[in-house]
Design goal:
The structure is a single chain. This protein is mainly alpha-helical. It has one domain: Ferritin, core subunit, four-helix bundle (Ferritin, Up-down Bundle), CATH 1.20.1260.10. The chain is about 75% helix and about 0% strand. α1 runs antiparallel to α2, α2 packs parallel to α5 and α3 runs antiparallel to α4. Bound molecules: hydroxy diiron-OXO moiety. The site of hydroxy diiron-OXO moiety has 8 residues, from α1, α2, α3 and α4. Hydroxy diiron-OXO moiety binds next to α1, α2, α3 and α4.
């Protein structure tokens, strides 16, 4: 049986992951509006990943005999300055998510919930990758932002990203 404090903390994180999905969809719509179609497609896949992260926790609560409680999802930002601003904001958002995952892992530890601690290891590792990806993209975009043909090539490259459903156990 899942400890109530742990259950509540995981439910909060489901909301944060669904908000991430919503935020990245909003970024994808903005990127489309400025004709960065490859970046928009890339961000759409990022949104799908966030949905998968939420569902991993959703399924975990149920497997542990807990109750999933879905709360309202906050309205995301809809406008940015440019493509660099979008990816910089996404990096900042991932850093915030990392701190939320760490706080959640602390709740599991404080409640001696070893199973949840083990389960959360996947998310802790995932956050390292997410921050690294966004960091790389922000650096690349900052280097290329004034070179339209290089920016076009990067946009095309990012547009080739495919969604691969993560296996979260
Ligand atoms: Fe769910 O990893 Fe990004 O936010």
């Amino acid at each position: 049986m899942l400890n109530q404090n742990v259950e509540k903390a995981i439910n909060n994180q489901i909301n944060a992951e669904l908000y991430s999905e919503y935020l990245y969809l909003s970024m994808s719509a903005y990127l489309k509006s400025i004709n960065m179609n490859g970046c928009a497609a890339w961000m759409n896949i990022q949104a799908q990943e966030e949905r998968a992260h939420a569902m991993g926790m959703f399924d975990y609560i149920i497997r542990r005999g807990g109750k999933v409680v879905l709360e309202a999802i906050e309205k995301p930002q809809t406008e940015w300055k440019d493509v660099v601003d979008v990816f910089s904001s996404a990096l900042k958002h991932e850093e915030l998510v990392t701190s939320k995952i760490n706080a959640l892992a602390n709740v599991a530890q404080e409640n001696s919930d070893r199973a949840t601690s083990l389960f959360l290891n996947w998310y802790i590792t995932e956050q390292v990758e997410e921050e690294e990806n966004f960091n790389d993209l922000v650096s690349q975009l900052n280097m290329l932002k004034n070179d339209s043909s290089a920016l076009y090539a990067l946009d095309k490259e990012l547009g080739a990203r495919q969604f691969v459903a993560p296996i979260i156990k």
